[in-house]
Design brief:
The protein has 20 helices and 22 strands. The strands form 3 sheets. It has a 16-stranded mixed sheet, with helices on both faces. Helix 1 runs parallel beside helix 6 and helix 15 runs antiparallel to helix 16.
Length: 533
């Protein structure tokens, strides 16, 4: 690895610029010591950033099994900004860049990235891990000291996990409004400010997760009775702050499970549906209690149309609304399967879906998906099964695939409704129809869609839209094996579904305990195949 060196600028002896690889570390306003530190783990992170390439981070995360290493180095951290429409012509300011969890993502999207962080050690970690990014400058020091030297032409300003600390360094009656007004000086008239922050009313805190900053239960829910400098807000609280600053355009987005390890982001234009939020036990930083089944409660919240109040995290985007209504990331997979799925608004009444590759290797996977569409369409030609039509964007698979946006209820939610009503007859009827279509024409056309699972089937009147079929193989796979995947994934979604396990596995499939065990082992092998781990 290339070492660092100090560069003195003639005529300005007070300026101190340190180069680490291609990155410039501006120490002009650095006081010489760090006011906060997470201890020895920062030395470990510095050693990793200095001595290992980023492609080795996942292995290191798995080997060392350390929460701080997972938190700072996980590739999922960058998802919170990856979906934003930042282009290679844009300038970005990142306030509170820390160890660089999102800096690399921004550097890959923008023309120029300016970072600010108070910690010298964290800034060096950031610099070493992104030392090949020639478009990044890191300013070390207090934001209030550095801010007057910044230009006023940024296209995006990102405050990721920063806004909640405003009253720690803005001494006023309205520190959050004042902080936002200071930041807005540096954004273009048509620019954007993105604020990622925890929701103090997030469902996980009601269910027993500790408050992220203080480590105590219910601190945010009780409005921080023990004081301190940190404050998080509800959806209306954040929008009120933006309104108090005179912003007329502000949109709320809902990262799930939260903004730190986001795999999906929703918007007011596309909110989650019942059954979508079933990946809730994702807190690795400290022990928690589990007071209730979050999936079941989320389903009720969604049914009552109260999800925005209880989303675990928020991303407030000040400025005009991006076209993206929804984004799902699959960057926890092996590189050859890494894709992202987006729903984009075309008009107030119309939208479309895009799947784009995260890597060069994933382009072949998308080509296989296009081929799967053709085979499955032929298999189900003339039936109520509608394979969602896909096309290559501009004839270039590197740009991805485009799909029609389908409406309807997921088969998963329809089964849940049967359980809620204790309507066993209707439940069995849906399963019987599912099994019929699963095996339909399987002997005539040799193609098997093992992603024929309940969330991927949208029922709209007399049509069953198959909206996702990326795991389709040009070979025969027994229908019962595919049904096991659907049943198994369904029963993972809470105790009510779990109660159907014997009905689904033994009565309908006729599996013995030994066959269930074998099928579980096969599913584990398939997941290892996808993740590469």
């Amino acid at each position: 690895m290339t070492g660092s060196k100090h560069v003195r600028i003639e005529g300005m002896p007070e300026n101190r610029i340190e180069e680490i690889g291609k990155i410039k570390l501006d120490l002009t306003h650095y006081p010489g010591e760090d006011r906060y530190c997470d201890g020895d783990v920062e030395d470990e992170l510095l050693e990793i950033a200095r001595d290992y390439s980023t492609v080795e981070y996942q292995r290191i995360i798995e080997e060392r099994r350390s929460w701080p290493i997972l938190y700072h180095l996980s590739p999922l951290r960058g998802n919170i900004v990856e979906w934003l429409p930042i282009t290679k012509e844009m300038k970005v300011l990142e306030v509170g860049s820390g160890c660089g969890a999102i800096t690399g993502t921004l550097a890959g999207k923008a023309a120029e990235v300016t970072c600010i962080d108070l910690s010298g050690k964290r800034s060096r970690i950031n610099a070493y891990r992104h030392m090949d990014a020639a478009n990044v400058t890191i300013h070390v020091g207090n934001f209030q000291d550095i801010e007057p030297t910044l230009p006023c032409d940024y296209d995006y300003i990102c405050l990721i996990g920063v806004f909640e600390y405003a009253q720690a360094y803005i001494q006023s009656e309205q520190p959050y409004e004042n902080f936002l007004n200071i930041v807005r000086r540096h954004v273009k008239p048509d620019g954007h400010i993105a604020i990622a922050i925890e929701n103090k009313f997030g469902l996980k805190y009601w269910a027993g997760c500790r408050e992220d900053h203080l480590g105590t239960c219910f601190a945010g829910l009780e409005n921080y009775p023990e004081g301190g400098v940190v404050r998080t807000f509800t959806r209306d609280g954040l929008l009120k702050i933006a309104g108090n600053c005179g912003f007329t355009q502000a949109q709320m987005y809902y990262p799930y499970p939260d903004y730190k390890f986001m795999t999906t982001i929703y918007s007011d234009g596309y909110l989650p549906k019942k059954g979508d939020l079933c990946n809730n036990l994702r807190n690795f930083d400290r022990e928690r209690v589990l007071l209730f089944d979050e999936k079941q409660v989320f389903d009720q919240i969604i049914e009552e149309q109260e999800f925005p109040l209880f989303s675990n995290s928020y991303l407030l985007v000040v400025g005009s609304a991006p076209k993206i209504l929804y984004m799902k990331f699959s960057n926890d997979r092996a590189a050859e399967w890494g894709i992202r799925t987006a729903i984009l608004r075309d008009t107030p009444q119309q939208a479309h879906v895009e799947k784009r590759p995260n890597t060069e290797e994933a382009c072949r996977h998308l080509l296989n998906t296009k081929h799967a569409y053709e085979l499955l369409s032929k298999r189900y030609e003339g039936t109520k099964i509608d394979i969602n039509r896909c096309m290559v964007i501009d004839g270039d698979i590197k740009k991805g695939l485009v799909f029609e946006f389908c409406s309807g209820k997921t088969l998963e939610s329809m089964l849940d409704e049967c359980l809620t009503k204790a309507d066993v007859k209707a439940f069995k009827a849906l399963i019987d129809e599912y099994m019929y279509w699963l095996s339909y024409n399987e002997d005539s056309i040799c193609v098997s869609n093992i992603d024929f699972i309940f969330p991927n089937i949208l029922v709209d009147g007399d049509k069953w839209h198959i909206i996702d079929y990326e795991w389709t193989f040009e070979k025969h796979i027994d229908a019962k094996e595919i049904a096991f995947r659907a049943f198994y994934n369904y029963t993972l979604g809470g105790e009510t579904r779990k109660a159907c396990e014997e009905l689904l596995m033994k009565d309908i499939l006729g599996f013995t305990d030994k066959q269930i065990k074998t099928a579980l082992e096969e599913e584990k092998r398939f997941q290892n195949y996808i993740t590469g781990s």
